[in-house]
Amino acid sequence: MSASLPAMAAAPAVSVPEDPADPLAALLARIRACRVCVEQPRRAPLPHEPRPVLRVGSGTGGGARILLASQAPGTKVHLSGLPFTDASGDRLRAWLGVDAPTFYDATRIAIAPMGFCFPGQDAKGGDLPPRPECAATWHDQLFAALPAFDLVLVIGAAAQNYHLRRLGLERFLRLNLTERMLRWREIFDARQGPRLLPLPHPSWRNTGWLKRHPWFESELLPVLRAEVAAALR
Ligand code: SF4
């Protein structure tokens, strides 16, 4: 885990009063109290207590110009309550060229996975995909309440499928993840704003993919770092 990770307050308990003056804060409170995957699951219920993990601002609309759209928490993130408090996070912060305080400043970078809670693991110990209940319940409301962002960095197939559709880039949905990555510049240039940049997951499981595609480091990462720096300014 990276040094200097900020502490995160525990998620609130179930009963949450709504604040009509701050609809985003009220929505975030409802998300943090969510038990849909336990009480109304579409398939086997979540095998543990929900712990939604997302980082978006509230009150003034957040202020973040960058959205990091990811997949779902893993075991370490489920325990920490902070996104990317693992080796994937270290690699992701290196890709972005940001330190941990900047990464976890929700007024500068919003982080919203497709499944807010850790979905559990399969029989081989691999993380399950994001719970489909989450996007069906929350994501349209959340992104309607958040600002448009300048830069939408989208990690993994599930998040890409959602945000390509949300941003009117359906023509790229038929491509698989590697095909999308190979056409990253075309996808990035397809909109003036918010601009979408697809990314592979920074997990160690993708180290082989990264080695087979050296252009990711030599061509995409310099653009990514420059765009992140510009959005943070
Ligand atoms: S994954 Fe999403 S829908 Fe399921 S319990 Fe967590 S917040 Fe609710």
Automatic annotation (TrEMBL):
Top-level division of the source organism's lineage: Bacteria
InterPro entries given in the database record: HI_0220.2, Uracil-DNA_glycosylase-like, Uracil-DNA_glycosylase-like_sf
Domain Uracil-DNA glycosylase-like: 56-225
Protein name, UniProt field: Uracil-DNA glycosylase family protein
Natural source organism: Ancylobacter crimeensis
Source organism phylogeny: Bacteria, Pseudomonadati, Pseudomonadota, Alphaproteobacteria, Hyphomicrobiales
